[in-house]
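Students often ask why we bother predicting the structure of a whole assembly rather than each chain alone. The short answer is interfaces. A chain on its own may look different once its partners are present, and contacts between molecules only exist in the joint model. In this exercise we take two input lines together and write out one structure for the complete complex. Read the inputs first and try to guess which parts will touch.
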Amino acid sequence: MVDFLAQLGRSGLRFFERLGRGHLLLLYILGGIPSVMPRLRLLVQQVYAVGVLSILIILVSGLFVGMVLGLQLYNTLVDFGAESSLGPVVALTLVRELGPVVTALLFAGRAGSALTAEIGLMKATEQLSGMEMMAVDPIKRVLAPRFLAGFIAMPLLAAIFSAVGVLGGYFIGVGLLGVDEGSYWSQMQDSVDFYDDVVNGIIKSLVFGVVATWIAIFEGYDATPTSEGVSRATTRTVVHTSLAVLGLDFILTALMFGDD
Amino acid sequence: MLHSRTVEIWVGIFVAGGLAALFMLAMKVSNLTEVTGEEGYRVTARFENISGLKVRSPVTVAGVRVGRVTDIGYDPNTYEAVVTMQIGHQYDQLPLDTSASILTSGLLGEKYVGLEPGGDIEMMVQGSEIMLTQSSLVLENLIGQFLFSKATEGDEGAE
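Now the answer. The structure tokens for the assembled complex follow.
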């Protein structure tokens, strides 16, 4: 019984310790961001790694999500003779929710896991301590550019996802199922508000970008420096990011769209 | 890692693509294009009931959108809703005795303000108040009235 309580207390302490370390790391990274500015090449390389390399999966999944939305919603809306509202429904779903959320989930799987594995391996092979030996701060040299790159790449990826999804809905709705082209676009423009919907979607994706990159970097930096530790950290990155994104999405939606 | 020039080109393409997608969301998907030209003059109108009218609802004359509702307030002295509308500069030929009514597009569509020009020689300017107003039609009241009149008809028939 005492053993059990001690175990419970230890895991509780470990949890708070990790929580605190994670937030301290975030502070250090934010403090290290100004030193990224003179070394833009590092940033560009990281934007390439987390952004450009994720484009293909974002394009393909955006297109298919939009096409599935078009198909499913058409079948439901046509019963009410309301197939002309296909455009608004597809666009609002994508811009408000699916764009930021699905992009963040894909981002966690595609870029977040890679970040964790890379940083974890750097730690396991003692590259990070090597840098410290050479008086190079790994937080400024390795972590801050990656963090900033995630922050930049995520809203762009989410915008690409939403735009491609709207086009996918257009191909299915207008091209295949015969919704009127004019009503698809004009009704969409009528009901999608730039500030309420598009800008809020961008804010969402910025928040998700910070959270996803932060978790990935922290898990990598905090990984047990063994091959098993790195693999566990990678798994944790994907699981924790997905949970955090879905939970945060609910909170952000309640805050942004709750009052009308 | 690839050659750094290639990396830079790809990042450039990525950022440009992302911005293009944002641009498309702004221009093609959302109503940003309509919002431009926010200039115009403001007029107010008092309604007994505005149920369903929202800020940014359209203001129309003869079905043509000429402005938007910019503010909805409440006057505690008269128990009326005060609706402020912004009307575009190019539509400054509205007579002072124009009347405003709250209408519904379609049976269950969104509410909008319909203006009906009158015959006054003077035109509305910044700060004018529309005196003739007609409140929003509350569907529930209408159904209630209909049922009530049906019920009384039924009673008369039974006698």
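Check your guess against this: Chain B has three helices and eight strands.
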